[in-house]
User: Fold these one by one.
Assistant:
Number 1:
Amino acid sequence: MEIKAVTGELTGIKAGAIIVNHFEGMKRPDGDAAAVDKALDGAISRLIKQGDIKGKLNEVTLLHNPGKLPASRIAVVGLGKKKELNINKVRGTIAETCRYLRGKGVTSVATGAQGAGINGIKIDDAAQAATEGALLGLYTFRRYITKKENNSGEIKEFMIVGQPKVTLTKAIARGRILAEAANWARDMVNEPGNFMTPTHMAEASQELAEKYGLKIEVLDKEKMAELGMGGLLGVSQGSQQPPKFIILSYKGSDSDKVDAALVGKGITFDSGGISIKPSEKMSDMKGDMAGGASVLATLIALAQLKPTINVTALVPATENLPSGTALKPGDIIKAMNGKTIEVLNTDAEGRLILADALSYAKKLNAKAIIDVATLTGACMVALGNTCTGAFSNNQELTNKVIAAGNETGELIWQLPMFDEYKEQLKSDIADIKNIGGRYGGAITAAKFLEEFINGTPWVHLDIAGTSDTDKEKGYLVKGATGVPVRTLVNVILSLAKK
Ligand code: BES
Ligand code: MN
Ligand code: ZN
């Protein structure tokens, strides 16, 4: 989709559809909607008066232009109550409107920078949000559908009308970088497990490195053994697919230091292993590498935005399958940092591979560590599908992550890390065991990870509930969400600023 900034009046634009807005509770059209209303001899006013247009958030009313404007159709979109409008609603509304128009066969769309000037929303943020909304909302994953669709087309052109043009053009470029990175992660996560193997993840990372000039290293089994990565090797030993440890680096500053390590869980399929999961919904576990995909995708955006900072993404990638060679409940393994782990449940595998990856981040001397993982069903029980869970040893870094999440609409809620929770992880015969008791599972998982952090400022993000969705809503479509790519990019930008 081509997205461009256009100066001039929306009413003068030739397009398949132009988008104007209406706020809930307003008696008459305003701004662009008023101009269109005038050209259409009060058509919008009449619909408002009749109650057909209420202005409720995401309500779309389509008017056919009786030849008085260059555009073929006018979509009047509800933005809800004016006082409650925020940037995330703009993203969602543009997404819903674009999907609606695509369904009507519209191929070119123009809109003003919806929301600009309202509740302190700046025009560049509005234009960026519209760009993100359009690209994220129109995302599809159809590569395995052989029947080509002919009824629902594609929006090929999206115009944002306003000024100054340079500001809009820059905002569009930024929105595109963020949304396309998130959509890359979505593609990775939606890909089924038979294609998205650890080897495929490594190859996709190699391609990114070449395309964006990033540094890459992929460790194989031999190297893992040399480094003592007993967690990753242990989880992978039940699978026929070789594990990979992906190290992708963005270098934006002259220093040799790693300013931030982004660690992502890369379980390309989680059957649970010998502690096998129930078969219902097991297929969802093809997405258990969403954390890994998100940290790789973050580097795509950084390579284009070029902040002055060095960031390394680390992804331990493997399948978790049962077999005659698989880890068994009760086995003891040794992580890269030398700690021994009693594996009482082979389905708590994410923390085992992260133990090595976090140890590796420590070895790199990373100044800050953020890990992202579809780690626990318990986090989903606690927070539902609305927020990602945050767990940390450092409030300053956590505040930055949460603030970045608020900007992007990828909501994050912090959960406690009291040492009392750690008691559940005491093992009688090893340094630590990999499961706690029945309750507080998201927190005990985080306390487990903390054992491999040793004081470095660190935030763990549990995206079990937020990495995919079964509902189409706002800029989310069914399947992978791309969470928390846009947030991670913002966090890194804020770290680079200081
Ligand atoms: N990948 C799962 C967590 C998960 C569950 C993510 C549902 C997304 C949706 C993880 O490896 C897992 O199986 N965790 C166990 C841990 C338990 C055995 C301590 C869980 O949450 O049940
Ligand atoms: Mn598991
Ligand atoms: Zn898992």
Note: The chain has two domains: 2-180, 196-497.
Number 2:
Amino acid sequence: MQIDILTLFPQMFQSPFSVGIFKRAIERKLVRVNIHNIRDYTHDKHHTVDDYPYGGGAGMVLKPEPIFEAVESIKSDISLKQGVDVLPIILLTPQGRLFSQQIALELSKYNHLILICGHYEGVDERVHEYLATDEISIGDYVLSGGELAAMVVIDAVVRLLPGVLGSEASPLDESHATGLLEYPQYTRPPAYRGWPVSEVLLSGNHAQIARWRREQAILRTLKRRPELLDKANLSLQERQLVSRLEKSNLPGESKGK
Ligand code: 6GU
């Protein structure tokens, strides 16, 4: 997958891509990330990327020309190399659709993405209307720019690409992939400061362990994010378990202090 990022702050992307799974994925050529400075696509002496909003008001607005020209330049480069027919052009903006694991999975199917990081009070509406094919927000809070949001999106997408995670690590039963939160994980020691690991996990009985984990995932989801259960893929028996748990008074989760 090739990912092109348009930003006013290219430096922000240096460290995330130089460590961990990104670094490995880039080294193995599973993903290629190109960072483009929007300022490089200006033509005036001062490299102006923003201007006052028409109609007045606080803050500055990102001008359309450098953003359109950056995208067109990237597009003309790639169409020479490969016949990419669908190329999502994603604007990171608090006004976008709310990012989710589902959207990460959807984006992971493309072989090329362009991400545009918005800034200041906003981006000229013509970028929203005539350039972006998709707009994504990572949550209902305000960031000072789209860069951190772009990194969140890229992280969630890249780890779904085939070969990026080790062969044994599977993204399939993580939180949200199943529609449920993940079950609790433990490692040695079996008792730490008097806090024991569940007997089931030490039993070596794989069927019993799988059942325990599934139950824990359902229980945890019911306690913390009950609205997720409506869409989760539960068996009839599991639905009945949820109804029983809902009627009983759920014990609160102790923080152990
Ligand atoms: Cl994509 N951008 C900004 N500036 N703020 C956000 C966001 C994006 N998603 C949530 N808040």
Note: The two ends are 46 Å apart (CA to CA).
Number 3:
Amino acid sequence: MSGKMVAAVESGGTKMVAALSRGPGEIIAHEKIPTTTPKETIYRLVEFFDREQSVHGKAEALAIGTFGPADLEVGSATYGFITSTPKPDWSQTDLLGPLREAFGGIPVVFETDVNAALFGEATWGAAKGFKHSAYFTVGTGIGGSLIVDGSLVHGSGHPEMGHMRVTKHPNDNFGGVCSFHGDCLEGLASGPAIEKRWGKKAEELPADHPAWVLEAYYLAQACVNVLTITPVEKIILGGGVMHQEQLLAMVRQEVIRLVNGYLKLQDAGELVVLPQLGDHAGILGCVALGQI
Ligand code: ADP
Ligand code: ZN
């Protein structure tokens, strides 16, 4: 049975993915729009949805999953805004308002991109049927999301697990790339951190490069830290860096080593997984959110 038709927007720092969809396998229309100035980008989104709705009918809900930080608190004066991003032109930008206006009164959902991705995985993918789950996207930055007791965790802010503190590897002298914290998780383990530490793009490093030992060391700490806070049953690792096929097994092994028998750890192979919806987790997550 088909769900509601949702106008879904996965809002990223380099591109927007827009879709009219009722769920996996029912993407009715789909477009990628480069993220330029807010005005131009929003104009192109509205243009896409106007055109497609005139062919396929009206969307019943609008759902946005955005890069952050963003104000997700319904009722806040800046609800629907991108807040303090260093991304040029986008700081303190109302993303939801103009889109909501263009859709004229249909229900709206505004979430982070990682929250949307986890929600998509919890609805149709790797975290389906589990009450507690987490998602890390390891790409240009590191974003994190948590579902506890079936609900996404957020308030005026949202989890910022990408900026958690981690212990430096004894062989790592790199200071980190986070402009706020230097050597937080994102500072040490994002794609740009790998590139700056080794002087080569992450995708160009061979599978047996020492970079991956460090990467597994940091990502496993992130997994274990989440496990010690809430008993997640699934930790999903997505994003460009996880396209390294050898990395997942290395992270699982390191998780077992770090836990060291303390937590009643289920099989690490069951616990730490890749997204089942692959690169569609974010946009499908928006569709799932719009259908609630
Ligand atoms: P974004 O975070 O911008 O949405 P991605 O999730 O694709 O996009 O992340 C981009 C980062 O992932 C870049 O730093 C890039 O070097 C890294 N990356 C992309 N593909 C690979 C790969 N196959 N192996 C390792 N790193 C990769
Ligand atoms: Zn940081």
Note: The mean pLDDT is 94.
Number 4:
Amino acid sequence: MRLQDDLACLKGLGPKSAEKFHKLEIRTVEDLLCYYPFRYDDFKSRQVADLMDGEKAVVLGTVVTPATVQYYGFKRNRLSFKIKQAEAVVNVHFFNQPYWQDKIALGQEVAIFGKWDSKKASLTGIKVLAQLADDLQPVYHLTKGLSQASLVKAIKTVIDSGYLQLLEENLPRYLLEKYRLVDRQSAVLAMHFPTDLAAYQQALRRLKFEEFFYFQLQLQSLKASNQKETAGTPIVYDEQKLAERLSALPFALTQAQRRSLTEILTDMASGRHMNRLLQGDVGSGKTVIASLAMYASHTAGYQSALMVPTEILADQHYRSLKELFPDLTVVLLTSGMKTADKRAALTGIADGSVNMIVGTHALIQEAVSYHRLGLVITDEQHRFGVKQRRLFREKGENPDVLMMTATPIPRTLAITAFGEMDVSIIDQLPAGRKPIITRWVKHEQLEKVLDWLNQEVAKSAQIYIISPLIEESEALDLKNAEALYQDLQEFFGTRARVALMHGRMKSEEKDQVMQAFKAHEIDILVSTTVIEVGVNVPNASIMVIMDADRFGLSQLHQLRGRVGRGSKQSYAILVANPKTDSGKERMRIMCETTDGFVLAEADLKMRGSGEIFGTRQSGIPEFKVADMVEDYPILEEARKVASQILAQADWQASPDYQMLGQYLKQEQAFD
Ligand code: ADP
Ligand code: MG
């Protein structure tokens, strides 16, 4: 029995179901053990007086009438009884679940999870809960064909078969003692089956520390090995040519853009190795600066590469670079490309006839060999891990590195998160931009919104409509988007050309839709959040976000940044009936400001106020349980400890650190 055992070897789990787990990146028993819930439903009971119509909740009460089952039609039935909660009498109905009758006895206290109907003062039961105590129910991300129940069952099987005992402690004992962290096995167990809130919180604290600690170890050992080779090649660019390009731009750079460009060029020209973060709100004009840096690199006789997280973005940047530099050879490299095109691109990259390369992860794959790679730029770099960044650097002759991000990160956090990186900030939007007008409307007002959209389409406006985000499953996301798309098609009929885009589409299909939208062959684009990052359609001036309260502030801000890119007055319409105070607050803040830094700060404050079970919002690198912003104190502690350990010359020899040394070696072997 090993933790690396394939899932398919588990009892009751054949290759067919194992395949479904693979879709969630769960292959081994260990993967499954470390696949944590993303949220816990708090089954704390509620007072019916506080419930909103249609809300799902647990209601605790005493049974005051016997339960009766009424049969009607074929196999249909209704189980009914009354419970009393304080002074309120509640009618409870279960449809087609007669088996709950056994659990209902007169005078007994019961906990029922159901949907509240305030008009009828009745509860439509979903289930009778076994426990009356507060109950945390884990909720996992799923994929098609895999239910919460079967996932939980698989985890139970793994634990019952004794695999948990194989999980070795991977933190030195003295750290566990110093920070009073629970051991690894208990932590993993409590993530899946928390006995109570306190146990869960302890587990979480330990796992967050572990995650940050290993992240910091990796980052800092990487930094140490980089420092040995900080001497970069001076990129002697042609100032004259660059100045010509600058004056050929259809606009003048903002002061903040000029400052950032100078900082970047100075780094590049120096013999020092550039490692810089370019931070600026959506639409602040980072891409232009990056393009100019790429051009400078070309004039010095070096290739440059731009890596982005999605194929749509790669294509967009590719087109805009070609447009900006028609005299240069720019190629696109993505894994979705046709083999022949890819081969041609690879040949050109290797023999140096290609000047600039734009692509996705394909850029760091084995087969790519660069000619003289002088500059590497990553867009929305928080989507790339430390390892990937290193791989990229190792491709060239220690190229200069520029990372761009639209996520406003406080400077202190950036330093801890990214190590010793220089930061340039574009804190100014190009002149003449009209601020986006944001309005929050309730679902009841949707029809008015649609009528208004109809008028705007007639005036040749283009519109994004973002379908609600369902964290549990991509399949549900899709279903929602499709339903919305159909409704809208029905509403607009021939008055507007409506199209749909979602994450399940092939990248070429997405590209086609996006290009058609850019070319104004589509008026209304219904989409899931796949358009979130970077997509640029200047004529699109309206964005409607359905169930906007499901999104975090940073994500709403990123989404909203897709409009307001042209000269037209732009609008963002948030459609939401938030159930929580924080949801309402988020809607209000979005209407008040369009400043990314103000929003980031508000986000920080709101989440600091103990929203333990909320959804996670856009972070920097992807962590399983930890959150760079929310858990900053833990991150800072982990950073200190990691640097103390690495500062000891012979740390790898110490028995305390055996696991750590092994881990770092393993990571390097994987590269
Ligand atoms: P970001 O990458 O920061 O989101 P972009 O570089 O895509 O922003 O710029 C957004 C839009 O603004 C683009 O259409 C770009 O051509 C334009 N733009 C960039 N800089 C300026 C400027 N200084 N003045 C006017 N328009 C600009
Ligand atoms: Mg951009």
Note: Residues 251, 253-254, 257, 280, 282-288, 406, 430, 536, 538, 565 surround adenosine-5'-diphosphate (ligand 1) (CB under 6 Å).
